[in-house]
Write a structure and sequence with these properties.
The chain is mainly alpha-helical and 165 residues long. The chain contains 10 helices and no strands. Helix 5 runs antiparallel to helix 6. The radius of gyration is 18 Å and the shape is elongated. The N terminus is likely disordered.
Length: 165
């Protein structure tokens, strides 16, 4: 257990190479540990080792296909790499696993926006609002989408709601 806390501390200190080393040793002893693969994938990403990150996210998914976090992390990496369709697919998989997480809906909504798929973005922002009606930025984002769709009254209502939060 003490080693786990050491890895967390190194992560907080952004000592990613040491995080990678520690998690690699842990994975050698526990080759089907999805959280370790996911976390090492994040550390690889932080150090610019994109291919290693993608491989570790895939390994995490293979170990535990019911965990949405590796899908979200890989989706965010695909998004950053400009492969937005793959990002949308991964966010969709995360939503299929855990539909009650508003963050997953927001991630996919922002990806839809990048592709100009405004109606789908509005739907995902609406889902996020249903799940967490207190997150101001979601109303602002959906209001911007409504404005682009020419739905000024809906946009104004969202901006008003955001201003009250």
């Amino acid at each position: 257990m003490e080693k786990s806390y050491r890895v967390l501390l190194l992560d907080e200190l952004e000592e990613y190479e040491e995080v990678i080393d520690g998690l690699s040793r842990f994975i050698e002893a526990h080759p089907s540990a999805p959280v370790a693969y996911n976390n090492r994938g994040v550390a690889y990403w932080e150090t610019g080792q994109v291919q290693n990150a993608l491989e570790d996210f895939q390994r995490a998914m293979s170990c535990a296909d019911d965990d949405p976090i590796p899908y979200v992390n890989r989706g965010q990496l695909f998004d950053k790499l400009g492969d937005v369709p793959k990002a949308i697919d991964d966010f969709g998989r995360a939503i299929a696993i855990r539909a009650d997480d508003p963050t997953f809906h927001r991630c996919r909504a922002y990806a839809y926006l990048k592709l100009g798929r405004l109606a789908e973005a509005a739907e995902d922002f609406s889902a996020a609002i249903r799940l967490d009606p207190t997150f101001k930025q979601t109303y602002v984002a959906r209001g911007q989408v409504y404005k682009q769709l020419g739905e000024a009254e809906k946009a104004a209502a969202d901006y008003e709601t955001a201003s009250r939060l």
